[in-house]
Write a structure and sequence with these properties.
Number of helices of chain A: 0
Oligomer: heterodimer
Largest interface: A-B, 26 and 28 residues
Number of helices of chain B: 0
Largest sheet of chain A: 6 strands, mixed
Strand content of chain B: over 45%
Strand content of chain A: over 45%
Radius of gyration of chain A: 14 Å
Largest sheet of chain B: 7 strands, mixed
Distance between the termini of chain B: 30 Å
Structural class of chain B: mainly beta
Helix content of chain A: under 10%
């Protein structure tokens, strides 16, 4: 089955700096890669996703890049703000078969003032 | 997201007891999932169901069972709870439509289960 590794497990940045979280996946058939944000005590919520036919996707201050050859994808947050502090999860799925997500282990991002 | 609800929100029980966690959704999605969240381990899939007659094991199904009573309801049972099942449990639904579509998952608020 699919295996998703996520790094780093914790990340501390100053407000205004950029943050990058990286994930690798093992199944070359995976074609859908979402990112979820979980604030303290809350449920995970989708913030951005990308399909394998696209190399990069951007939504305001967040962007995701995908390298299919290397089987890795990354989340980029620019101009970080305190409200970006949360745990971020990457995931991968093959929507052509049993479309179920395999999640990474999460990155706790702390944005300091 | 108020469209996916879970009951109870918190539960403390003892080893050996049978526990049922319930999930309901008003989003009209066919696909429903149960996950377990532990610190440092992320979200791990316990069971999933793509329609009322479809039940599939996830990566950590041992010690758990599920029931899909209707499109809107998906229950998770621990037949004989043990302390290492202490965790945060999330139900989710998905809007998957076709192979070429996305597969956004909508999570419930979670149930915090403690097994003593």
């Amino acid at each position: 089955g699919e295996n998703v590794e996520q790094h780093p497990s914790t990340l501390s940045v100053q407000e205004g700096d950029s943050a990058v979280i990286k994930c690798t996946y093992s199944d070359s058939a995976s074609n859908y890669f979402p990112w979820y944000k979980q604030e303290l005590g809350k449920r995970p919520q989708l913030i951005i996703d990308i399909r394998s036919n696209v190399g990069e996707k951007k939504d305001q201050r967040i962007a995701v890049t995908l390298n299919k050859t290397a089987k890795h994808f990354s989340l980029h947050i620019t101009e970080t703000q305190p409200e970006d502090s949360a745990v971020y999860f990457c995931a991968a799925a093959n929507t052509g078969t049993a479309s179920k997500l395999t999640f990474g282990t999460g990155t706790r991002l702390q944005v300091t003032l | 997201d108020a469209d996916v609800t879970q009951t109870p929100r918190n539960r403390i029980t003892k080893t050996g007891k049978r526990i049922m966690l319930e999930c309901s959704q008003t989003k009209g999605h066919d696909r429903m999932y149960w996950y377990r969240q532990d610190p440092g381990l992320g979200l791990r899939l316990i069971y999933y169901s793509f329609d009322v007659k479809d039940i599939n094991k996830g990566e950590i199904s041992d010690g758990y069972s599920v029931s899909r009573q209707a499109q809107a309801k998906f229950s998770l049972s621990l037949e004989s709870a043990i302390p290492n099942q202490t965790a945060l449990y999330f139900c989710a639904t998905s809007d998957f439509v076709a192979v070429s579509s996305t597969d956004t998952q909508y999570f419930g608020p979670g149930t915090r289960l403690t097994v003593l």
